Amino acid sequence: MSDPETTPGTAAHQKIDTSVPHSARIWNYWLGGKDNYPVDEEAGDAYTGVFPGIVTIARSSRAFLQRNITYLVAEAGIRQFLDIGTGLPTADNTHEVAQRIAPESRIVYVDNDPMILAHARALLYSTPEGATAYVDSNVLDPERVLAAATATLDFSRPTALILSNILGHIADHDEARSIVTRLMDALPSGSYLSINDGSRGVDPEFEHAQDGYNKSGAVPYNLRTADEITSFFDGLELLEPGVVSVTQWRPDADAPDAPVIAEHGGLARKP
User: Fold this and answer.
1) In the chain, what is the straight-line distance between the N-terminal and C-terminal CA atoms, in Å?
2) DSSP state letter for 33
3) Which three-class secondary structure state does DSSP give residue 62?
4) Which GO annotations describe the biological process of this protein (predicted)?
């Protein structure tokens, strides 16, 4: 097992604040992970008290991403991944799913949280044939992200860009679309874009809970309509079934019928 490369930046010099809840740690708690603190568990429990379905959304989002990556590696032949807004490592991270199928796969994770940086070297181990790297950067600076990722990825080869539950942190929709466009413009034909995000227009209870969370002083997460999420794929070739509730995106053949939930996603190819 080879060590991951870590590109230190601003997060490397920040202290981990355990006195206030953190969205990545709360998400980790909902996924069943252990990398969280009592304050995160309290915030997570308070949220589930209002909307218990958030645990289903978190875990369905993760399962959607795993199905995306499996398709990309096993059927589309992708061997390079740029995963921005990684979050805390849990089970079946991007490199684990990809390298299980193709050990030579190369993955760059991007985040700017000091706790995630601390866990990257300890947990994100690659196969000897492939590579994992961690870039300490922010999705709001796509040019810096891309420049740092070139140390591990060859952008003359098709690459999958993963934006899982990250674009909701960008309040302005036009800015979010611009960032997606700038990132995809750097990738060659045959590359892919995978996006999933919390959505409006499906579950009023979820919207009420999220709006309340956003007003609590925590870092807000902005829900978007399915049409707004679909607009991130403009100019690309959406794979069937398009942008749908994540439970409806190519579910496993033996999976029971899953309900539509307020988390939409899709996968598209750059022509």
Assistant:
1) 35
2) -
3) helix
4) methylation
Tell me the sheet residues that pair with 264: 197, 245
**Nearest-10 crossing angle of helices 23-30, 38-50:** 70
Closest CA to 217 of 36, 56, 57, 46: 46
pTM to 2 decimal places: 0.87
**How buried is 144 (Cβ within 10 angstroms: 0-12 exposed, 13-18 middle, 19+ buried)?**
middle
Tell me: the pLDDT tens digits for 49-108? Answer: 888 888 899 889 999 999 999 999 999 999 999 999 877 666 678 999 999 999 999 999
What's the confidence (pLDDT) of residue 181? Answer: 98
pLDDT range class, residue 23, cuts 50, 70, 90: confident
> How far apart, in whole angstroms, are the C-alpha atoms of residue 188 and residue 82?
13
Judge residue 257's burial from the number of C-beta atoms within 10 Å of its C-beta, 0-12 exposed, 13-18 middle, 19 or more buried: exposed
* CA distances, 14 to each of 10, 26, 111, 118, 254 (Å): 7, 19, 13, 11, 45
Burial class of residue 13 (count of CB atoms within 10 Å of its CB; 0-12, 13-18, 19+): exposed
